[in-house]
Design brief:
CATH superfamily: Survival protein SurE-like phosphatase/nucleotidase
Number of strands: 13
Order of helices and strands: EHEEEHEHEHEEEEEEHEH
CATH topology: Stationary-phase Survival Protein Sure Homolog, Chain: A
Structural class: alpha/beta
Distance between the termini: 48 Å
Oligomer: single chain
Largest sheet: 9 strands, mixed
Number of helices: 6
């Protein structure tokens, strides 16, 4: 590897053999020294889980490609602290098979890998393809390169990552990038009843019809309009408006009622 080129850690939640991560790996190789450290199998919707109840094993899959029998968060933590020879300049997570819009980010292993990078003070982004098979990973690759170059040249605000969602359309059919805010998306009938051959009832979480909050500046609307959505995600979950209100409420028993917003 060249010491002059930026080191880019590539990961995902679809597994080390996913065509999406291989597409992102090829894209990142165009602008830096890319290394894949990813789960050994699909770990979708594991959120920001960290494996604490068992040891983790790293295996070499190919040149600069490693698998970990753990979560996306495990992969980033182990890569930065144990596998990589130097600290990465960027964490790139994806390309995910399916959208990570609105409330999806709270469940997404793809986004959580970028969150872990951000916690470690490494500029990070997550990128997803919004739609169903067949997945046009070649459509997302140029946007991944553009976002990565911007981050490497400009960096990001403290405690902030970028969540990128690309419409799953043929190359050349996607409109330009739109900067968006995180929307609200919920699923109706997302828990299905299923039965075993012996008649035992079970539940399967997944699917359902998505409903979203309307708004031109929201991530979901941008993708529906054919644009690439780029949303800055801040890790500080404090509601500062509520904080100011609660400081003036009877719940604040610090002995002094504070005036104004914090």
């Amino acid at each position: 590897m060249s010491a002059q080129r930026p080191l880019i850690l590539v990961t995902n939640d679809d597994g080390v053999h996913s065509p999406g991560i291989l597409a992102l790996f090829r894209a990142m190789q165009q602008i830096g020294d890319a290394v894949i450290v990813a789960p050994d199998r699909e770990r979708s919707a594991v959120s920001h889980a960290l494996t604490l109840h068992r040891p983790l094993k790293v295996e070499t899959v190919g040149e600069n490609i490693f698998s970990v029998n753990g979560t996306p968060t495990d992969c980033v933590a182990i890569a930065v602290q144990k596998i990589l020879q130097r600290r990465p300049h960027l964490v790139a997570s994806g390309i995910n098979k399916g959208a990570n819009l609105g409330d999806d980010v709270t469940y997404s292993g793809t986004v959580s890998a970028a969150i872990e990078g951000t916690i470690l003070n490494i500029p990070s982004f997550a990128i997803s393809l919004c739609g169903d098979r067949p997945f046009h990973f070649d459509t997302a690759m140029p946007f991944a390169i553009e976002v990565a170059r911007y981050i490497l040249e400009t960096s990001l605000p403290y405690d902030t990552l970028l969540n990128v969602n690309v419409p799953n359309l043929p190359k050349g059919s996607v409109k330009d990038i739109r900067i968006t805010r995180q929307g609200k998306r919920v699923y109706d009938n997302a828990i299905q009843d299923i039965y075993s051959p012996w008649g035992d009832k079970h539940y399967w979480i997944g699917g359902g019809k998505p409903y979203w909050e309307q708004g031109e500046d929201m991530d979901m609307q941008a993708v529906l309009d054919g644009h690439v959505s780029v949303t800055p995600i801040h890790l500080d979950l404090t509601n500062y408006e509520a904080l100011a209100m609660l400081k003036k409420s009877p719940l604040n028993r610090s002995g002094k009622q504070e005036e104004g917003a914090c």
